[in-house]
Amino acid sequence: MNEQIITVNKLTKQYQQTQASGITDINFSITKGDIVAIIGESGSGKSTLLKCIYGLLKPDAGEVLMNDKRVKGPDEQLIPGNAEMKMVTQDFSLNIYAKVYDNIASMLSNTDIKAKESKTLEMMEHLHITKLKDKKIIELSGGEQQRVAIAKALISDTKVLLLDEPFSQVDSLLKNQLRADIKRLAKETGLTIILVSHDPTDGLFLADQLLILKQGQLLQNDKPETIYQNPSDLYTAQILGNAVILTREEALQLGIKTAKQHVVFYPEWVELKSTWQSRRFEVKEVYYKGFYDELLLERNGVKIRALQLNSGEHKKNDHIQANIGHFLEF
Ligand code: ADP
Ligand code: MG
């Protein structure tokens, strides 16, 4: 159990010698069958890291091991890339004038036509694109093209699927479906998936393991819930999306003293109380979220957000008590 399929050792790739661009001294390993999400702002080195893992880019230093074998760089083989991995990039690399079926089937050899057909149909079933079988790629939406690209990547005994910004072209409803499908695929087939994204919600929902990348460096590597509860620095807290971030001066306005520069907390850490006397906040906005509300609260000119689980309990312009029970300092 807990077999490591990929190990990344001291991986460094700099595009320019003078200026930091690329990745620096990256170390981590991946358990077989896991979904790993690599999150970082644009330019943080996500695509560079993926390309090094796949063998499309030659690292300056360090190595990538797949099942204990070093992944070869582009200078060491005729066709760059690793036979047991597949990478789906934002441009999908599909033959846009060919049919969906043919795009996927083209990955298989013609030695056994029957097997080729059944395998292709089965993979289309997996990705919910059976209905699109005879359509040309050019006739499909971005989300549909993406499913075809994934089906094509997976059909030839792929052990590791690399996805570069897989959700960027998909609207939010389809996004949820695709996320669920990716998760199911990984669990059903034992496939290992590495996905990179600038959108943390992709990673948090899906991943068994989450890596935070900043300016080419690996800041944090842990379970998503651990990173969410305990971001190691302000960048991570910011990139996770929903945190309330106050400067020291703002925090002081709310009665929170800190020696650090920032105070950070999540809306769900704020307790709303009706008995507590100090720290009165005014409800500036109520954002309806379905089974709860998010409240925008203000006190002494400082705005925070809090969850109201009893939807509709406090209304705009109400004055309420809010206690920031737990917070982080950076
Ligand atoms: P991300 O995928 O996180 O947006 P990239 O890995 O594409 O980041 O890029 C990381 C950094 O390396 C960026 O600063 C980018 O400008 C630089 N970079 C990427 N590719 C090249 C290249 N071929 N030549 C020079 N610099 C590059
Ligand atoms: Mg990129």
Strand content: 25-35%
Spatial ordering of strands, largest sheet:
6-7-8-3-9-10
Number of domains: 2
CA-based shape: globular
Q: How many helices? A: 9
- Please name the CATH architecture of the largest domain: 3-Layer(aba) Sandwich
| CATH level-1 class of the largest domain | Alpha Beta
Structural class: alpha+beta
| Mean pLDDT metric | 92
Task: Give the CATH superfamily of the largest domain.
Answer: P-loop containing nucleotide triphosphate hydrolases
Helix content percent band: 25-40%
CATH topology of the largest domain: Rossmann fold
GO molecular function, one term: ATP hydrolysis activity
Keywords: ATP-binding, Nucleotide-binding, Transport
Domain ABC transporter: 6-240
Protein name: ATP-binding cassette domain-containing protein
Which terms summarize this structure?
330 residues; alpha+beta; Rossmann fold; OB fold (Dihydrolipoamide Acetyltransferase, E2P); 2 domains; 6-stranded mixed beta sheet; 5-stranded antiparallel beta sheet; 9 helices; 18 strands; globular; binds adenosine-5'-diphosphate; binds magnesium ion
